[in-house]
Amino acid sequence: MTLPPLAAIRAFEAVARHLSFTRAAEELGMTQAAVSYQIRLLEERVGTPLFLRKPRQVELTAAGLRLAPEVAQAFELLRSGFARSRGQVDGMLALSSVPTFASQWLAPNIGLFQLAHPDIAVRVESSGHLVDFAAEEFDAVIRATNHEVEGLVYHRLLDAEFAPMISPKLMEEYQIREPRDLLRVPQITPDDPWFIKWLELSGIEPPKFDDRPFSRLESQYMEAAAVAAGRGFAMMTPAFYPEEMASGRLVQPFETVGWNGHAYYLVYPETRRNQPKIRAFRDWIVDATAPLRQSQRGIAVK
What we know:
Layout: H1 6-18, H2 21-28, H3 32-46, E1 51-53, E2 58-60, H4 62-91, E3 92-97, H5 99-116, E4 121-126, E5 140-145, E6 152-159, E7 163-165, H6 168-173, H7 193-201, H8 220-228, E8 234-236, H9 242-247, E9 263-269, H10 276-288, H11 290-295
Parallel strand pairs: 3-4, 3-5
Antiparallel strand pairs: 1-2, 5-9, 6-9, 7-8
Helix pairs in contact: 1-2, 1-3, 1-4, 2-3
């Protein structure tokens, strides 16, 4: 048997629960005449009256009494199912982050967010690809950029400042005393444009690029591992490596810091601004990264 129209079933469930066409109409946002019409459609489909319409009250017929508990149970199952689904949506924050921010800051600190918000689980994907919020199931992303896209909300977390960093061993081996000395040291990712800008900021004419084949590490956190292993120096964001510098694994040999306008942002669609889980994560991460922003010099390179 084909199911009757859902609107008719909804009207029946409401009238059976209230035993009133008027109150059912108010709950459903319909007119009383529209509710009566839906009940008539249902009665025609089942082939028997479902209500006794008396002057001052409505009663269920024998057929209505048999049908009402099953319809009520079916609607309760639907309500429970949607409530559970809504709870899962509200309780899971899906986040995409560029690898360097994910490994150097988010991974060590995300546990603090979950301690503060035990009702929200976080799924983090470390990736640099541009998320399509309309097609992918991510609530928010952390990206490094220097421009904003209409329809998205941006919260600045950290400027992508840069400076050369090196291991203490190579610092001593190559007798690094002034910026020009770095030109004698092997460079991780030799075509890194940050180094050219940093040399210009330091008043040094950049050397001609050597077009011989070389290895390239596509993420800063991999470059940091190579630097710590003594394989050369690399251009990195000092704010990501306070512990490595404090322990002596990495050295920032010169105070000069460059910045080309890029920053790390928390980004999400304007339409999701008021979602509780996004609001909670936004407030937490903006506050938690405040010390990073306060520690930065932010010298712009033109």
